[in-house]
Design brief:
Blueprint (H helix, E strand, L loop, with lengths): L1 H16 L11 E7 L3 E8 L10 E3 L4 E7 L6 E4 L4
Antiparallel strand pairs: 1-2, 1-4, 3-4, 4-5
Length: 84
């Protein structure tokens, strides 16, 4: 009788401690890299977040580009993103 109760309590504690901050983790989204000869902000789909770590990068098959977010549609693409 105590074993199922202990297992439930342990599982519940584990679930609470492994939750992530959903505001910090982003799913695949439209991000931008800056390629000045072609366009100031070129869009790509990438999965990055806003937790400071290694900058998020995109590889177009030729070069690695750092990717950024925009605060709004008309704003510059200059908000740093990070690898998950």
């Amino acid at each position: 009788m105590l074993l199922p109760v202990a297992a439930f309590a342990l599982a519940s504690a584990g679930a609470v401690t492994t939750q992530t901050d959903k505001s910090a983790v982003e799913s695949a989204q439209t991000l931008y890299f800056i390629n000045k000869p072609l366009s100031p902000c070129q869009s790509v789909a990438a999965t990055c977040n806003n937790i400071p770590s290694t900058p998020c990068m995109y590889n177009d098959g030729v070069s690695n580009w750092q990717v950024f977010r925009r605060l709004s549609v008309g704003s510059p693409c200059n908000v740093t993103t990070y690898h998950q």
